[in-house]
Amino acid sequence: MQVTTAILRLLIFPGLFFAVPAAWLFLYIERKTIAQMQQRIGPPLLQPFYDFVKLLGKEPLKLGGIQGLLMRAWPAFSVSVLIAALALIPVFPSKGGFSGDLILLITLLELPSMFYMLAGFTSRSIYGKVGSMREASLSLSSNLLFLTAVMMIAVSAHTFRLSELAVPAASPARWLGLAAIVLCIPAKLRLNPFSTSSAEQEIYSGPLTEYSGSDLALWELAHGLEWLALSGFVVSLAFPRTGFKIADAGIFAFLCIALVVLLATVAAATARFTIDRSVRFYWRWSVALAVVFLVSAVVFKG
Amino acid sequence: MKVLEKLLSHCRQKSPWLFHMNSGSCNGCDIELVASIAPRYDVEQLGIHLEGSPRHADILCITGPVTYNTLEAVKTVYGQVPRPKAVVALGSCAASCNAFAGSPTVVGPLHRHIPVDVYVPGCPPRPDAIIEGIAKAAELLGHSERRPLTDEDVKDIPPCGGCEAAAAEGEEPCR
Amino acid sequence: MSILRLLINNICDGSITLPYPERPPIQSAFRGMVQNAPEECTGCGLCAYVCTSSAITVQRAADGFRWSYDPGQCTFCARCTQRCPKGSLTMQETRPPIYQQHGGLKQFHDVKKKKKAAVISPGSPQPVEATS
Question: Domain B2-168 belongs to what architecture?
Answer without folding.
Answer: 3-Layer(aba) Sandwich (3.40)
